[in-house]
Amino acid sequence: MSQATTDVLTIGNAIVDVLSQTDDDFLVREGLVKGSMRLIDQPEAERLYEHMGPTQMISGGCAGNTAAGVASFGGRAAFIGKVADDEPGHFYRHDMKALDIAFPTSDLTTGISTGRSMILITPDTERTMNTFLGACLELTPGDIDAATVEGAAITYLEGYLWDPPKAKQAFVEASRIAHGAGRKVAITLSDSFCVDRFRGEFLDLMRTGKVDIVFANNHEVLSLYETSDFRAAVEALADDVPLAAVTMGAEGSMVVAGADRTMVPAPPVDTIVDKTGAGDLFASGFLFGLARGAPHADCAALGSLAAGEILQHIGARPQHSLKAVAEQQGLRV
Amino acid sequence: MSQATTDVLTIGNAIVDVLSQTDDDFLVREGLVKGSMRLIDQPEAERLYEHMGPTQMISGGCAGNTAAGVASFGGRAAFIGKVADDEPGHFYRHDMKALDIAFPTSDLTTGISTGRSMILITPDTERTMNTFLGACLELTPGDIDAATVEGAAITYLEGYLWDPPKAKQAFVEASRIAHGAGRKVAITLSDSFCVDRFRGEFLDLMRTGKVDIVFANNHEVLSLYETSDFRAAVEALADDVPLAAVTMGAEGSMVVAGADRTMVPAPPVDTIVDKTGAGDLFASGFLFGLARGAPHADCAALGSLAAGEILQHIGARPQHSLKAVAEQQGLRV
What we know:
The structure is a homodimer of 333-residue chains. By secondary structure, the first copy, chain A, is an alpha/beta fold. Chain A has one domain (10-328): 3-Layer(aba) Sandwich (UDP-N-acetylmuramoyl-L-alanine:D-glutamate ligase), CATH 3.40.1190.20. Chain A is 40% helix and 21% strand. Chain A is built from 12 helices and 13 strands. An 8-stranded mixed sheet of chain A has the order 5-1-8-9-10-11-12-13, with helices on both faces. In chain A, strands 3-7-6-2-4 form a 5-stranded mixed sheet. The first copy, chain A, is globular. At the A-B interface, strand 4 and helix 4 of A face strand 4 and helix 4 of B.
């Protein structure tokens, strides 16, 4: 196995976030489930945008956020995802370049526009996502750049890739190439509704060894095993995958590796403003640490630190150097 | 004089802000003067964007920010400014509509794109603006909707309107209509470089009674009268205009009305994140108070409260209801 040239490659839906602060009444009027992600088509995206309050636009997408986090730690990051040759697409590509994230996926030029997620932030800081996938629907196995996958210590894929039909083939192809090069493959379960849509397929990926590392929050683990018994769910997870990191909100996270269970507390966060991307950023810190050979507990601490940074402002991309924040807190990798 | 149907109409350059956090080295490499606003053309805008870090896009423009502040206080606001029929233009118009701000200006359809300002935020929270005026250059007297001006208790214009050549005619036309309807006209001097470009014309506007109220910070007042003696500058200002509000950073503001000088302290701000728009939001609070007949000291306190809100996050548009913040602090209008 040759030396990795990339710490973490992330593959996911390339999405521009359109964020707006709103109130609970708006969610009720629109019939939205707080904290969830729903998929919408272009007319519904346009209708909803019409009714939303003032917005700000920031590059997003779970896997893109995770790549941004890895880069902010000083890691070598890469991203594969599909944008169109339009203004939001240029905006997305600009941000990847500005962060020095390799982005070897060509633009879609069929006229379908770049994906976007209308994210409604309620006063309780929860986010409710309404995602129009657009160009993301056209990610295919042909977009999986083999050299990038082979050079990445870890390839990380988002569960949301199961939504666009051709992307799941891309996912499996990426896993095959990564394992062929002796690398690790990680997946995030994305959200508990996503788990509900694809439970069988996610379990199959784990049980057939296509993924080595699973990221999930406590709700997603319960959903995966259709149980309300967290301890039992964790035992099942330990049987199904060699390494898992389970986030538990303010309580921190649990690293599950064989018979080991390591609870790592999260440092308290002064003022939570927006929960968008907290899971994505946890993954960035954990994966960066893992790619650099840090012990699991340090990986989880780096994850909590990254999540803590983005909880304190609007948007899922770090506003401060995570490398600097880690050094301030005495966490060196 | 009929009852006003609008509290505050603002007229200015309709600009989408493209914000990015950077370091001092970047400003030095680019030869930029920290804290200033410079005008750039489209090729330079594209070149600079190429070199900037990750960005977020938020509707901006001084007068637009002020209108957003007035609306956030619960005031009836209107805005006149020129955007193109393109994505940033739609984004800008969406935000005005979402804030219930009347926006009676038609889109420009000549192919010139919507104006944008690349705003570089340094770790000391200063902002350095690089503005491509685009469609703003095409604001003409024909865009001044007479009914809107006649119905507004105060029409507020930004000094930056002096940069696009046709806009200054629009400015003078708006002042004529407002005074014809017995309304008040306000101007902000925008920045000390702007004052330097148009000192004679600004003084002429004041001395010929085309404006009744002047907003400026301490640097701009010194620049206006080409002196380093603040007291002397304030005396000259009092001679030239019936009412002025001079902001002085953390010290608060001074209301200058004839022989009266009222110093109004600003409440301390915990964590300043980004100074973009602080002056614009001060004006929003002051103007809202004035339109509702509040005493000058209360107007200045509302201004400081609004500025304090936006200093605490990235971007120049309020993220919390200023009406609610004012009520919390016992400031009722």
